Amino acid sequence: MGSADGIKAVVFDMDGVLLDTERVSEQAWAAAAKSTGSKEAGEMYAPCVGMTEPMIRVSLENRVGKETAAAFLEAWEKEFYAITAEGGIPSMAHAGETLSDLQGKFRLALASSTRGELVRKQLSDAGLLKFFEVVVTGDMVKKGKPDPEIYRLACSLLGLHPEECLAVEDSPNGVRSAYSAGLKPVMIPDRIKPDEETLKLLWKLCPSLKDFCVLIS
Fold first, then answer.
1. Taking a C-beta distance cutoff of 8 angstroms, is the pair 125, 154 a contact?
2. How far apart are CA 2 and CA 16, in angstroms?
3. Tell me, what's the pLDDT at 80?
4. Fewer beta carbons within 10 Å, N or C terminal of the chain?
């Protein structure tokens, strides 16, 4: 644990931190497992949280084979868009007010494993895109989380050293990515709670965005 002295920027993950996509994604994943009859693929949700789409595909192929993985991912995407077409993707509690409060106090960036087209649309629909100076997405890097590349790129585009940046994450894969890049990871757990290994990597553990905002304001 430490103080926020010297911190110049906050780099946010999107899914499960700013937007409630993880709940929708998990629901769609379970529906895809049922429709494809692949129990093994259904068990892969937690390990895949925070990964880019190509990495999710590889992880599934290694577990269930290419044919089953392709059918599962097609069903997952179909289920996800069916759910969001009805009600959209809600923001996480206090997302807008947190970004508004931090703007001007810290430089704000985004590091999301989701591809850029979706990131910008989903954040724009939620009224949150305007807060970010730098947006780094999964299709801008060769290796996704837990590899540190995405956070290193975010820091490079900000022109800051990693130790000058906080990373706000909800998944172990994201925490490992930020920690390996040299940022100070803050975890706000969503669908997955931190294990002992993840806890050792954290700068802070916060129950909500509101608590995080209070912590560093």
1. no
2. 25
3. 86
4. N
For 178, half-sphere exposure in the C-beta direction (CA atoms, 13 angstrom radius) is 32
> Do residues 107 and 101 make contact, with C-beta atoms less than 8 angstroms apart?
no
Instruction: Tell me the CA distances in angstroms from 15 to 12, 158, 175, 212, one per residue in order.
Output: 9, 21, 13, 17
> From the CB of residue 157, how many other CB atoms can be counted at a distance below 10 Å?
14
Whole-angstrom distance, CA of residue 79 vs CA of residue 36: 12
Q: What are φ and ψ of residue 66, in 5° steps?
A: -65, -45
Average pLDDT, the chain: 92
Q: How far is the C-alpha of 178 from the C-alpha of 156, rounded, in Å?
A: 14
Q: Dihedral (C-alpha) 148, 151, 153, 155: value to the nearest 10 degrees?
A: -130
Work out the average pLDDT over 86-110: 93
- pLDDT higher than threshold 70 for residue 78: yes
The one-letter code for the residue type at 71 is: A
Rounded mean pLDDT of 87-91? 83
Angstrom distance (rounded) from CA 166 to CA 9: 6
Q: Map residue 120 onto helix, strand or coil.
A: helix
In the three-class reduction of DSSP (H, G, I as helix; E, B as strand; rest coil), residue 104 is classed as coil
Tens of pLDDT, residues 118-148: 899 999 989 999 999 999 999 999 999 999 9
Task: Give whole-number Cα distances, 37 to 42, 48, 151, 177, in Å.
Answer: 9, 19, 36, 32
Residue 16 has pLDDT above 80, yes or no: yes
